[in-house]
Design a protein that fits this description.
By secondary structure, the protein is mainly α. Helices cover 62% and strands 0% of the residues.
Length: 108
């Protein structure tokens, strides 16, 4: 790889990072850069931003969720506001529990 190719790769990488940070939003991008790129700890990021304890964890979770959505790792409807959860059970597909069965199990 020559210098021109390397320069093109670096510019392309920078553009990808900038698109991802724009997708996350300016409110969250700084925290992602601090924690994921500059390897600052959550406590340090909280202090620098004037946040209460454990707020950094919540902001980081929001930022990582937005990044996952940007990269197509989760669907739009699988976010904090609209989680997609399927009913899980050990029965067959047509299995439906009854209220009587639940009462018997609870009282028995």
């Amino acid at each position: 790889m020559n210098a021109a190719d390397l320069r093109d790769e670096v510019i392309a990488a920078k553009e990808r990072v900038m698109r991802a940070l724009m997708a996350v939003g300016p409110e969250i991008a700084g925290v992602l850069v601090d924690i994921c790129c500059e390897l600052k700890g959550l406590e340090e990021a909280e202090k620098e931003n004037g946040w209460p304890q454990r707020a950094g964890k919540v902001v980081l979770q929001i930022g990582l969720t937005r990044l996952a959505r940007h990269y197509g790792l989760i669907r739009e409807e699988q976010t904090e506001m609209h989680p997609v959860r399927k009913m899980r059970h050990w029965g067959s597909d047509d299995y439906r529990p009854t209220l009587d069965a639940w009462r018997n199990k609870r009282n028995g």
